[in-house]
Structures are given as C-alpha cells and as structure tokens.
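Notebook entry, structure prediction.
Reason for the run: the old model in the group folder had no record of what sequence produced it. Starting over properly, with the input documented here first.
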Amino acid sequence: MRCSGAEDANRDNSLEEHASSMKRGQTVGLRHRSARKLAFKLGARTRAIWADQHGVAAIEFGFFAIFLAAGLANVTDVSIYVYQRM
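New structure, fully documented this time:
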C-alpha cells in the first residue's frame, strides 16, 4: 500500500545503518544477505511465471500449427499432382 506524502516526509531514509556496517568491515555479510535476498526474489518470480497460465493456448496452437502447415503442404502437393495428370 502506498504511503501518503506526509508519511514519506517523516520517514527516515538515511543509510546510516549500511554506512556504519561498511565502516566496521562487514561488507561481506551485507553482500551475502543481498545475494540471498536476490536469490529468493528470483525464485519467487520463477515460480510465479511457471504458475501463470496466460498465453498457454497460443503456445499450444503454435506447436499444433506446424503439423497443420505440413498437412496443408501435402494436400496442396497432391492436388497439384492430380491436376497436372488430368
């Protein structure tokens, strides 16, 4: 849920916590936590993409259209052959 402008103005957006941990030489732990958080976000997005069912019919039709086109090409070829033999 979005915050109002007044709440944004009162929020403390300082980076003192990150800066103080960097001063103490704890940047490795900070990177590890951010990499872990990124991995969890990536996993969640991957699961969301696999769960999404939008566009599945179009993909299935794309696979099936290959066989339809091959059948149409065969029918056309046989029709031309029969027409020429008449």
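Summary: The radius of gyration is 30 Å.
The old model has been moved to the deprecated folder.
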